[in-house]
Amino acid sequence: MTRKLDRGRLVIATHNAGKLREISALLAPYGVDCVSAEELGLPEPEETGTTFVENALLKARAAAQAAGLPALADDSGLSVTALGGRPGVYTADWAERQWFEGEPGRDWYMAMGKVEGLLCQQGPEVDRSCWFSCTLAIAWPEGDEAVYEGRVDGTFSWPPRGTMGFGYDPVFVPNGRSEAFAQIAPEEKHAISHRADAFRKLVAEQFSD
Ligand SMILES: O=P(O)(O)OP(=O)(O)OP(=O)(O)OC[C@H]1O[C@@H](n2cnc3c(O)ncnc32)[C@H](O)[C@@H]1O
Ligand SMILES: [Mg+2]
């Protein structure tokens, strides 16, 4: 039997502000008292796994141990069919660390440009299909764990469009839509995204009576 969350404190084990916003919104209806890894001053663990599941578990375990509270982590990424599934688990790494106005950050435009450059090398007829994956892992300080996986399929579209969302949202057009994720309101993205897909599974198991 998978252990279930009570409605007490839950650490959101991410250092990505965009994800934190989405996870908080997705959890809002369930009365969970969320606290972020950043607020608790938890270190960012090195993501040494080679799969989304390994990295999500590694981040959740590190936060649960450090905080003595259950922790929810998200490992996600964009996989491009014509690139053999890259960048995949390495999606964040493709955006090298940069300094913006004195703050450390990542250069998402450079990373999206890298994908576009590789697609262009394959010619104008290249297959632009791609998908976002999201693995959510919950770890409890006592060692219990639960994992939920989600996915959304779409097209890698160029040039980038829109200002909402985060990361690769300006280049991802979900199947059945013409707008990029960055042009779709958060409530709508929360109904169709890879994170929403994984959340549906989490909610079904964790918050059913
Ligand atoms: O590990 P944490 O601290 O959670 O934050 P991170 O940004 O490093 O996150 P990941 O290691 O899971 O890397 C996944 C990257 O994939 C991208 N990504 C994931 N979900 C996305 C979404 O909904 N929209 C756009 N980009 C997304 C985004 O650029 C992330 O940085
Ligand atoms: Mg990361």
Automatic annotation (TrEMBL):
Binds 1 Mg(2+) ion per subunit. The active site is at residue 75. Substrate binds at residues 14-19, 76, 166-169, 189, 194-195. It comes from the Bacteria. Its EC number is 3.6.1.66. Its cofactor is Mg(2+). Keywords: Hydrolase, Magnesium, Metal-binding, Nucleotide metabolism, Nucleotide-binding. It holds the Pfam family Ham1p_like. It is an enzyme of class 3 (hydrolase). It catalyses: XTP + H2O = XMP + diphosphate + H(+); ITP + H2O = IMP + diphosphate + H(+); dITP + H2O = dIMP + diphosphate + H(+). Mg(2+) binds at residues 46, 75. Signal peptide: none annotated. Homodimer. Belongs to the HAM1 NTPase family. Pyrophosphatase that catalyzes the hydrolysis of nucleoside triphosphates to their monophosphate derivatives, with a high preference for the non-canonical purine nucleotides XTP (xanthosine triphosphate), dITP (deoxyinosine triphosphate) and ITP. Seems to function as a house-cleaning enzyme that removes non-canonical purine nucleotides from the nucleotide pool, thus preventing their incorporation into DNA/RNA and avoiding chromosomal lesions. This is dITP/XTP pyrophosphatase.
